[in-house]
Amino acid sequence: MEKEDFDFLQEHSLKFLEMAFRTDRHERMAHPDGYGKKTGVCGDTVEIFLSVRNEHLDSVSFEVNGCMNTNACANTIAHLAEGKTLEEAWEITPEKVAEYLETLPPDHIHCSELVAGAFYLALTNHRELKQKPWKKLYQ
Fold first, then answer.
1. What pLDDT does residue 46 have?
2. Is the whole-model pTM more than 0.85?
3. Domain map of the chain by residue range?
4. What integer pLDDT is reported at residue 131 of this predicted model?
5. Can you name the CATH fold of 13-134?
């Protein structure tokens, strides 16, 4: 049986590689305006932190305990979300994340679903904190 050659750098798009190796958004935000945490069936865990100003996502940071694909998806969510209104942010789907990355392996689509789930939880948390601001003190 002949060994199949696999060149990681040649098999992935530049967008995927940038998002997979980018680390500037890896941060546990103090006093976030929204927070979401989700663990996938694969064991990866993502925590998303939102900073909101004037109904726009000012910044999105995250912590990932997982694979490179999950890191790429988390960076992509942050990239796609920053500057968007809260309403527009709800339109960021796992499919849009995979589409942006171009070469997310089909067997890792669950990574985009995991990160999107944590992101939606953070958006929901922001909505709850806006209605009951005193809860932010207890996060």
1. 98
2. yes
3. 13-134
4. 83
5. Sufe protein. Chain: A (3.90.1010)
